[in-house]
Write a structure and sequence with these properties.
The protein is mainly α and 127 residues long. It has 6 helices and 2 strands. A two-stranded antiparallel ribbon has the order 1-2.
């Protein structure tokens, strides 16, 4: 099974519960999660090793109420995991383009979260 890269925002589930209790719409978090993931995608595409552009073109963002997600690969591009994490048995060195992109853009996407949470708090306080 392929390894998955995960950068976790601690307390996201608790934040969603608290927002619901306060009367705010937790669906707002899905929007900011997608925006945060969208910040990472172009940087990840710029860092992927390129032969045919198929892996690069398979990088995309997604979101739920709890997380922003960056995916690479699909059925027609099954080698995304081995390229990202490496495969020593086949002499494939890791190219951690997804995690590197998330780390290098962290100030940008954390700012998005900060702005969104402040906006939600202001909405809750104004009600």
């Amino acid at each position: 099974m392929a390894k998955r890269s995960l950068i976790e925002i601690k307390g996201a589930s608790q934040l969603a519960r608290t927002l619901r209790k306060a009367g705010a719409d937790a669906k707002d978090l899905k929007d900011v999660n997608r925006k945060a993931a969208d910040v990472v995608v172009p940087v990840a595409k710029g860092g992927v090793p390129v032969r045919s552009h198929r892996l690069e073109n398979s990088i995309r963002s997604g979101a739920t109420q709890k997380a922003g997600v960056i995916r690479a690969g699909r059925k027609s591009v099954p080698y995304a995991g081995p390229i990202h994490w490496g495969w020593p048995g086949h002499h494939i060195k890791p190219h951690t383009f997804l995690t590197d992109a998330a780390k290098s853009t962290e100030p940008e996407w954390t700012e998005l979260y900060e702005q969104e949470i402040k906006k939600i708090i202001e909405q809750v306080q104004g009600e």
